[in-house]
Ferritin family protein
Amino acid sequence: MRIHNVPTPRDMTELMAQAYALEREAVERYGELADVLATHNNQEVAALFRRLASQEALHAAEILRTMGWTRAPEPPGLPGAPSAPAYDETHYLMHPWHALRLALDAEQRAHDFFAELVQRCEGDDMRRAAERLQADEREHIVLLQDWLKRVPEPPAGWDDDPDPPRYPH
């Protein structure tokens, strides 16, 4: 079953370009979320998103280094990164627990994406590369699961705000 509407990479360059694009979009999304939460004076979660963005940036840099690229080629038909958290899943009063859940969900989607590519890639080298990318995402999942065990789940009513922001219509 095909769960992602992305063309199967034809070669290692396309595969790694897809992986690089996913990492870069995650960097941008985490950075944007950090900025929004900082604007709402939620510095703790903003710092957590910045840390996640830094980790994703390291992964992107590693792909560039491994491939010997100074700039990655454009991947064919990549409609949004499965490893980037969705904007509509955030809340300006969210706690670190929520940020970790968002990141965990995003890493699971990235893992599933690469699992699908493992099945679709032709050639042992590409399949092994997709398996390594999938394994990297699995490591991220385990790390986030361990981190979540140490962070308390917020109490009921965490999103109550007697003076919520007002947005112009």
Q: What stands out?
A: The chain has one domain: 12-76+91-150. Residues 12-39 form the longest helix (28 residues). The two ends are 42 Å apart (CA to CA). The domain at 12-76+91-150 is CATH 1.20.1260.10 (Ferritin).
